[in-house]
Amino acid sequence: MFTSRYILTPGQVALRQASGSSLRPNAGKAPSGLTTGLSSVAGWDQQGFSLIEILCAILVLAVALTSMVQAVTTALSSTKESELQTVAASFAAGQIETLRAEGDLRDGTTEGECGEGLSLYQWQQTIAPAGIDGLHEVTVVVQNTKSGKPIYELKTLLFEVADDSRTSSTTSRRDSTSQRRRNSSR
User: Fold this and answer.
1) Are β-strands 121-129 and 108-113 bridged in parallel, bridged antiparallel, or unpaired?
2) Does residue 98 contact residue 115 with C-beta atoms inside 8 Å?
3) Neighbours of 158 (CB within 10 A)
4) Does residue 14 belong to any structural domain of this protein?
5) Whole domain around residue 148: which residue ranges?
6) 79 contact partners, CB below 8 Å, separation of at least 6
7) What 8-state DSSP symbol labels residue 185?
8) Is 186 inside a domain boundary?
9) Using one digit for the tens of pLDDT, what is the confidence trace for 85-125?
10) Does residue 135 lie within any of the structural domains?
């Protein structure tokens, strides 16, 4: 007669004792001639996961990881786009401040590179009359050097007093100050 030994874990022993079943697998069943390894295990309470359960778990993990990678990629590209917009806005504002500081606004279009550290950008500055003497509409567009696609556009109005009125108002102020001094000394 064929005998085999089965080793049960303490948890399996306690479970079988609580349910009132025998500690031997297939107890009380008639032998079935030829048995394979799978049929001899059939009487046991199966522990573990089936192949379908493992495949479903892998599928859920794959979907979750794909979503996380996509979210991180989107966040990084948004951060890069935000940095690009900030640099372009700062450069455009700097161009307008340079015009304001230098004065002598001349209508027309000027283009240029943004510099060594900003080789990805180029700028185009347009100064046009705004309909009132001395008032100019200034537009600064920062573009991508490779694609020529506008990244940022800043428009503003700058006022510059005409040269003739500056000298005439300065002269008239000097004349009025001189007359006051003369009148006060008399």
Assistant:
1) antiparallel
2) no
3) 16
4) no
5) 83-162
6) none
7) H
8) no
9) 888 899 999 999 998 898 888 899 999 988 777 788 899 99
10) yes
